[in-house]
């Protein structure tokens, strides 16, 4: 049985679930873990296709992916880590996934249109029994305006959720890398890779803290 599950979930579409799921998968796979992305976006299967492209190009480290409609079958898996890449809505499948995850990553952009539904989504998970400390909010597609980033961080802090200190800027390099089967830590730009690696390390650290707490 797979021991660990990290989920990237959200109410909104297009906020970066798949982007973060791939980054997390690549980070653990680089440390020799066997990792599978469970792709719940069964209409588009973006992460399954991404892994397919990765394999075709022979990119290392190897990451696995498969379509999923329910986390029930996670029990049958034999991977060190499953990264669940969620569907763009807060239906029962998202809740079921959150319940079996040690860490739930909720990505958001800076706009109120992104923030509001994502905070409501986190609240809904907590109301339905997901421990609050298992949730981590990550800012993605931030702009260069430091003031607007700080403003959003302040709003988020008032919610009491864990907010990643590292974030990802909106960059064509991140999008192009993913179109070419690479994660946001494997772009052609060192600065972009370092930024993504910083976020990935923070997620790993949080995961370790939560695992120690649970032990
Ligand atoms: N930081 C970024 N900079 C530039 N492009 C990005 C960034 N993050 C994500 N993207 C691009 O934005 C699009 C949506 O991102 P992604 O697929 O990760 O979101 P999602 O939440 O999984 O979407 P969906 O709800 O459709 O599954 C993708 O084309 C992705 O390459
Ligand atoms: Mg997706």
Mind explaining what this structure looks like?
- By secondary structure, this protein is of the alpha/beta class.
- The protein has a single domain (4-214), classed as Rossmann fold, CATH 3.40.50.300.
- The chain contains seven helices and seven strands, in the order E-H-E-H-E-E-H-E-H-E-H-E-H-H.
- Strands 3-2-4-1-5-6-7 form a seven-stranded parallel sheet, sandwiched between helices.
- Strand 6, helix 5 (146-157) and strand 7 (162-163) form a beta-alpha-beta unit.
- The longest helix has 25 residues, at 190-214.
- The protein is globular and about 45 Å long.
- Adenosine-5'-triphosphate (ATP) binds at residues 13-19, 41, 46, 88, 140-141, 168, 170-171, 174-175, 178.
- The site of magnesium ion (MG) has 5 residues, from helix 1.
Would you count the extended β strands for me?
7
Query: Helicity, in percent?
Result: 40-55%
* Succession of helices and strands: EHEHEEHEHEHEHH
Q: Any low-confidence stretches, pLDDT <50, length ≥5?
A: none
Bound molecules: adenosine-5'-triphosphate, magnesium ion
Average pLDDT reading: 94
CATH superfamily: P-loop containing nucleotide triphosphate hydrolases
**Which CATH C-level class is it?**
Alpha Beta
- The proportion of strand residues reads 15-25%
Largest sheet: 7 strands, parallel
